Amino acid sequence: MSAVTLIPAGSYVIDPTHSRIGFSARHAVITKVRGAFNAFEGKGSVKDGQASIEVTINADSIDTRQADRDGHLKSEDFFNVAAFPHIKFVSNSVKQVGEGFVVDGNLTIKDVTKPLTIEFAYTGAATDPFGNKRVGLEGEAEINRPDFGLTWNAILETGGVLVSEKIKLEFEISAIAQA
User: Fold this and answer.
1) How many domains does the chain have?
2) Tens of pLDDT along 24-53?
3) pTM, rounded to two decimals
C-alpha cells in the first residue's frame, strides 16, 4: 500500500458550497441526462500516511433541472427517498498513485452495499482569502444501477431502454483542513 504524501496530515471536511457530486446517464440511448446531489457532507483524514474518506448524500437533494423527472427519481421506482433518505460511501483504502489517488470503499444505496473504486486526480492545495487551507480532488467512477435496486426502465420502440444501466458518478471536491 502506498503512503498518502500529497495531502498534509490532518482532518478535512468537504465544503459543499465549492464541491459537486454529480452523475450522468444515457437517456433513450441517444443522449445524456446530467444531474447532481445538492446536499451532502463528507470528511476525511490523513494520519501516518494513511487516509480515509466518508461521504453522506441526501438522496432527496437530487437535481436534474427538471421537476417531474426529479420527482420520479425520488419515488419508489428509483431512490425511494422516504424509506432510504441517504446514500453513503465509506473508504476501505486510499492509495496514492502518482499525482492522484485510488479510493476503494463501499457505496450504499437503498440499503444495498457494493464495493466501489473511485479514481481521483489531485488538483492542488491553496489557502483561500479567509485563511482556510484547502485541497482539491476530481474523480469519477461507474456503477450499474440495477445492482443497487434501481431497476425501473421503459423499453423503446427501437428495442433500447429509456435509462441506461450504467451511471457515471462525478466528484469535484474542495476539502478544508480542520484546526
Assistant:
1) 1
2) 886 644 567 889 999 999 999 999 888 999
3) 0.89
